[in-house]
Design brief:
This protein is of the alpha/beta class and 483 residues long. It has helices at residues 81-84, 127-136, 149-156, 166-182, 194-197, 201-208, 229-243, 263-273, 295-299, 320-327, 331-338, 350-358, 378-393, 399-405, 408-414; strands spanning 7-17, 26-33, 36-41, 47-53, 58-61, 63-65, 88-93, 142-145, 147-148, 186-190, 217-221, 247-249, 279-283, 288-292, 303-309, 341-346, 362-364, 430-433, 454-459, 462-466, 469-470. The strands form four sheets. Strands 1, 2, 3, 4, 5, 18, 19, 20 and 21 form a nine-stranded mixed sheet that branches. It has a six-stranded parallel sheet with strand order 9-10-11-12-13-17, sandwiched between helices. A three-stranded parallel sheet has the order 6-7-8, with no helix packed on it. Bound molecules: zinc ion. Zinc ion is lined by residues 96, 190, 221, 250-251. It holds the Pfam family Amidohydro_3.
Length: 483
């Protein structure tokens, strides 16, 4: 409780404080000075340049989207409305093995590197160039970057359908080291995808060893999330343990009809491994995933929606089956004609989604893809959907717990210093929301729609959203690994 006379830049009065730790909410005022939280408690005697009457709204740390593909978006001085309107103030980029740097390709990049954009945006041969570019034009949200293993492979190898040779591995290692020295927070893999599918666990291990003892984290879109999900979990656990690095399993799911329900088993595996290893996971609150258009993903899905197609933009937002009828082709032929393309895949069960989202160590990551005309609704809806639908309406968890998953838990897992908590001295990343009204409005049919109930968003002490109006503060920091 801080009640002495201090001058603040802003006081937000009379709010329900959800401090990000998962502890029970408390009522009070929160003050901001510069880019930090300067006081919390009953602040009637403090003076301030500005006062906002909170009127009993909920105040929480700005949400941390631990799983994004915003690598290019954050460079463009885009106001990042899809994030800010959800209350997201920090994004982790470079997931699923895909990062914008270090790579400067000669021609088109292979799928799924094209989920963040085409070859024209891959123009950073060194990771430090990418970071310098981010720093020279501050983004709308804070950005913590991972290095992508597939990006390293594309840069070091002339063919991707085999393990890397020792020489190629040396080159990838040198690029990873440069990125880590520049402040990258860790390495991501996408072993499911064609560019990394032929990389054995030993290749990943060699790279991860460079991070041992540095605090660098390993995140993985595993080799398999359907029929061999348990085997892939074991591989991920073992690789991270052998290297001595913390692990995050990305967008955990059990894909394909015959694997529905398997999360009861997989979550037990997390319980067990967590007794002796630092392992976390993230998830998004939807039964459909989204990525490049790939035949093997289509096979595991009951319905597929095309999000974008380079040769056939007229089919954006259409069902794949309907496109096949119109083109008078088989599904396989249709896919061949549509690529390069992206898709939404209905491949999970609601029970698994609920079980995984409510698991105590699951963080929230949207996996939103800002590229394409008809994105998955998770891009605009993830965080309000967890708070509104899953915590409040379905009563699957207390609001404190839901907030913790998207703030304190995320910051501690990824080592984001002074973020994810409402505490004196922390960065003033703050979201003010109406707990009764908060809801996602983005749907599969109409995916680009801002959520309801987000009243105010501060990024590093500056107002980015005020009652529905974007202020384009561009106050984001580049969050680098503590050395
Ligand atoms: Zn992924």
């Amino acid at each position: 409780m801080n009640t002495h006379c201090t001058h603040h830049d802003l006081i937000i009065k009379d709010v329900r404080i959800f401090d990000g730790t998962g502890e029970e909410e408390r009522r009070g005022d929160v003050a901001v000075k510069g880019d930090r939280i300067s006081a919390i408690g009953s602040l009637e005697r403090s003076s301030s340049a500005a006062v906002i009457e909170g009127g009993g709204l909920a105040l929480a740390p700005g949400f941390i989207d631990v799983h994004t593909h915003d690598d290019a978006q954050v460079l463009s001085q885009d106001p990042m409305a899809s994030k800010i309107t959800q209350g997201v103030t920090t994004v982790i980029v470079g997931n699923c093995g895909i990062s914008l740097a270090p790579l400067q390709p000669d021609g088109p990049v292979p799928a799924p590197l094209n989920v963040i954009g085409d070859e024209s945006i891959y123009q950073y041969p060194k990771f430090s160039d990418y970071i310098a570019s981010l720093q020279s034009a501050p983004p709308a949200v804070n950005v913590a970057p991972l290095v992508g293993h597939s990006t390293l492979r594309v840069g070091a190898m002339d063919s991707l359908d085999r393990p890397a040779t020792d020489k190629e591995l040396d080159k990838m290692g040198a690029c990873l080291q440069e990125a880590l020295d520049a402040g990258a927070i860790g390495l991501s893999t996408g072993l499911y995808y064609p560019p990394a599918r032929h990389a054995p666990a030993t290749e990943v291990l060699q790279l991860l060893k460079l991070m041992a003892g540095t605090g660098g984290i390993y995140t993985t879109h595993m080799r398999n999330e359907d029929d061999h999900v348990e085997e892939s979990l074991r591989e991920s656990f073992e690789t991270a343990a052998s290297a001595g690095v913390p692990l995050v399993v990305s967008h955990h799911k059990c894909m394909g009809h015959k694997n529905h329900g398997l999360s009861t088993q997989t979550l037990k595996m997390f319980d067990e491994v967590r007794r002796h290893q630092t392992v976390g996971l993230d998830a998004y609150p939807y039964i459909a995933g989204s990525s490049s258009l790939l035949p093997e993903m289509v096979e595991q899905s009951t319905r597929v929606l095309v999000t974008w197609s380079q040769p056939y933009p007229e089919f954006n937002g259409w069902d794949l089956e309907r496109i096949a009828e119109v083109l008078n082709c088989t599904i396989d032929e249709t896919i061949e004609r549509l690529v390069p393309a992206g898709a939404i895949y209905f491949c999970m069960s609601e029970d698994d989604v609920r079980r995984i989202i409510t698991y105590p160590y699951t963080m929230i990551g949207s996996d939103g893809i800002p590229y394409g005309a008809h994105p998955h609704p998770r891009l605009w809806g993830t965080f309000p959907r967890v708070l509104g639908r899953y915590a409040r309406d379905l009563e699957l968890m207390p609001l404190e717990t839901a907030v913790h998953k998207m703030t304190g838990l995320a910051a501690s897992t990824f080592g984001l210093k002074d973020r994810g908590r409402i505490v004196e001295g922390a960065f003033a990343d703050i979201v003010l929301f109406d707990a009764d009204r908060i809801a996602d409005t983005a749907t599969y049919e109409e995916p680009i729609r801002p959520a309801n109930g987000i009243e105010l968003v501060l990024v590093n002490g500056l107002i980015a959203l005020d009652h529905g109006t974007m202020l384009e503060a561009c106050a984001g920091h580049v969050v680098l690994r503590e050395k």
